[in-house]
Amino acid sequence: MAGIGLSWPSKLTERPTHASAVCRSATRCCASSVKMTVSVDEKKKNFTLKNSEDAFNAAKELMPGGVNSPVRAFKSVGGQPIIFDSVKGSHIRDIDGNDYIDYVGSWGPAIIGHADDEVLAALAETMKKGTSFGAPCLLENTLAEMVISAVPSIEMVRFVNSGTEACMGVLRLARAYTNRQKIIKFEGCYHGHADPFLVKAGSGVATLGLPDSPGVPKAATTDTLTSPYNDIETIKELFNTNKGEIAAVILEPVVGNAGFITPKPEFLSFLREITKENDSLLIFDEVMTGFRLAYGGAQEYFGITPDLTTLGKIIGGGLPVGAYGGRRDIMEMVAPAGPMYQAGTLSGNPLAMTAGIHTLKRLQGSGTYEHLDRVTNQLINGILNVGKKAGHAISGGYISGMFGFFFTDGPVYNFEDAKKSDTAKFAKFYRGMLEEGVYFAPSQFEAGFTSLAHTDQDIQQTIDAAEKVLRQL
Ligand SMILES: Cc1ncc(COP(=O)(O)O)c(C=O)c1O
User: Fold this and answer.
1) CATH number for the domain including 374?
2) 168 and 302: one domain?
3) Which pTM was predicted?
4) Taking each helix axis from N to C terminus, what angle separates 368-389 and 19-29, rounded to the nearest 10 degrees?
5) Residue 401 belongs to domain spanning
6) How far apart (Å, rounded) are the C-alpha atoms in residues 260 and 59?
7) Does ligand 1 lie within 6 Å of residue 71's CB atom?
8) Beta strands in 256-302 (DSSP E)
9) Where residue 15 falls among pLDDT bands split at 50, 70, 90?
């Protein structure tokens, strides 16, 4: 699967590359990595997580499982989670003073690099005027215009505070618009933790071995139909047996929550056609892929326009945000323009809007997506090469700044295929990489992310570390 995405046309890859612009941004973002003078071996000798362990033991008494989001808990890779102190550029530093090259990027938002100086300066300016108005502000118009002009399907947008909220809102809207109840989602796709979506919901739930969650009423999920990803025949059958009842098909257009899984070339166009034929809506959950695969998201990258789209992560530049948007005739059903109710105290707040605006502005610079493509290509091919050389079954792929690999020969087309990965091996690999100063997501079933701040040096260091660790497994 390596480089599978390269066969797809991307409007952005047709833009002229200005390597200097990429270098400029990468150098600025990576100020902290340039300062690192301690050798990797020296760092490893001093590697301890004592402070993290103490802090986590205290946290467990204060918060369920010691964390505020389950996948942070390291359950599937063993050991305790690391407690972090600061981020800058492509690096993240823990409370024991260990420094890591970071491929989690706060689970996606940090696409221009962590704690970008321009974003921080803009936030400081906005903050002088206050942190929340609970009333409209000009910055909402600015970010809305940017999102609408970037994302092909979005003619109107509603900002919320998280990806979960965005998916809850879009589901209610799809049901209100079509006056139908049933939805189709895909096994391994995650659309936040709202009740109707907690069915075969990928990473976090899978990592914990919970097929569904207690507390979700049966009634909330009886209208959620599921299908394996990339499985055209099951979708045809579901439409046949539920004629006139399906409000929408929702999916991650590239899966990041079951590991990294790409759609087969005909899959998205098939979904576009069958939803149209049945007067159902097609919803792309682009909370992860939006502004990541291309500036206009997966829908620009693949050239398939859904009816509705959810966004999050990148459009908040690291502050809490989400959004849903789509065709004007559908969006005008949302209150107060229409009767479908949805609201939020902090929605569209000036800080999140500011971080989003300045993150998107940086992404508009020339050469940005070329940089993401180049470093991620080097990274994933480097890891696959050293893995194979060391005799491991390993497969993986990438598109732009999103990647993943599995300890199985593949191909991986759906969550069942992904589960064939040797997760015990992944856990050992994971712990080894931590000691080498590389921070991946602590689960086999999560995609990884690069950023404009990742340098060739970061990538080479990561591949060298992977080679060393994989040889020892
Ligand atoms: C595709 C997708 N949808 C929805 C969500 C939920 O977003 P949040 O965690 O902001 O609620 C996520 C989170 O990772 C996601 O990856």
Assistant:
1) 3.90.1150.10
2) yes
3) 0.91
4) 70
5) 6-107+367-472
6) 31
7) no
8) 281-285
9) very low
